[in-house]
Amino acid sequence: MTANGATLGEWVATARARFSAAGLPDAAIEARLLLGGLLGLSNTEVFTGGDRLLGEAERQAVAVAIERRLKREPVHRILGHREFFGLDLRLSRETLEPRPDTEILVEKTLFYLRRIVAEKGRARILDLGVGTGAIGLALLKECPQAECLGSDVSEDALATAMANAHLNGVAERYCTIRSDWFAGIDGKFDVIVSNPPYIASSVIHELDPEVRDFDPLAALDGGKDGLDAYRAIAADAGSFLALDGIVAVEIGFDQKQSVTALFTQKGFLLAESAQDYGHNDRVLVFACNNTK
């Protein structure tokens, strides 16, 4: 037996105590999640399998993972994957870790996507700044009549998104392209969706270490005022949007008015807005103003 114990229950208790002492929130939940993920166990199995003896290799892996978390590396980064909207998504160095609030963007987009499919029989999606592929892949999984093009400037992100498409069984309706926003894009799309970088450059240093030190800067930094990506999307989206199509974007908690203004200046109407689980503005959906 090591100083940290030999059983699963002892290791969970050790991780929980050390996380709590370090001031990490949700220490008990994270301890179970981390050990369960490392050992391939469900949450129930972690609860009921406390007497399970860990082998030497398992103990070493758990010890290393605990130290990584104490250095503020997120649990899902340590595990290398994360669940999102029912999908299992691999993470990589240049991809943003998808978070529950982004599921609201998927939910709102799905409403319009299904309506378009009901009218046209099919739909084309453009996912700008694809990262892990979370948004586009979730839409494809929920809507078999859709196909998606995912774009990003990062080759690492594109490879990760394509791997996730295969992992989740939608690769035949998914493809990727290296593009700086619309620079390399051709054609028309029924849905243009994006969770772009929207943090003002000057406040990135104030973010939690889990975000600041482990999410890629390119996926966070939205420029001086946090709006650079929205300017780029609003400027050109109309040229790539099919008739009666929509543009859906995730935003920062204080950006509803400013982002709406950018899109209305380019001939769009705000069709819908939605808040996240913390009651902050999080999603905006725009349609073309055909009267202009």
TrEMBL record:
GO terms for molecular function: nucleic acid binding; peptide chain release factor N(5)-glutamine methyltransferase activity. Belongs to the protein N5-glutamine methyltransferase family. PrmC subfamily. Substrate binds at residues 195-198. InterPro entries: DNA_methylase_N6_adenine_CS, HemK-like, N5-glutamine_MTase, PrmC_N, RF_methyltr_PrmC, SAM-dependent_MTases_sf, Small_mtfrase_dom. It catalyses: L-glutaminyl-[peptide chain release factor] + S-adenosyl-L-methionine = N(5)-methyl-L-glutaminyl-[peptide chain release factor] + S-adenosyl-L-homocysteine + H(+). Residues 120-201 form the Methyltransferase small domain. This is Release factor glutamine methyltransferase. Keywords: Methyltransferase, S-adenosyl-L-methionine, Transferase. GO terms for biological process: methylation. Methylates the class 1 translation termination release factors RF1/PrfA and RF2/PrfB on the glutamine residue of the universally conserved GGQ motif. Its EC number is 2.1.1.297. SUPFAM superfamilies: S-adenosyl-L-methionine-dependent methyltransferases. It comes from Metarhizobium album. S-adenosyl-L-methionine binds at residues 129-133, 152, 181, 195. Gene3D superfamilies: DNA helicase RuvA subunit, C-terminal domain, Vaccinia Virus protein VP39. It comes from the Bacteria. The keyword Cell inner membrane does not apply. The keyword Lipid metabolism does not apply. Residues 10-80 form the Release factor glutamine methyltransferase N-terminal domain.
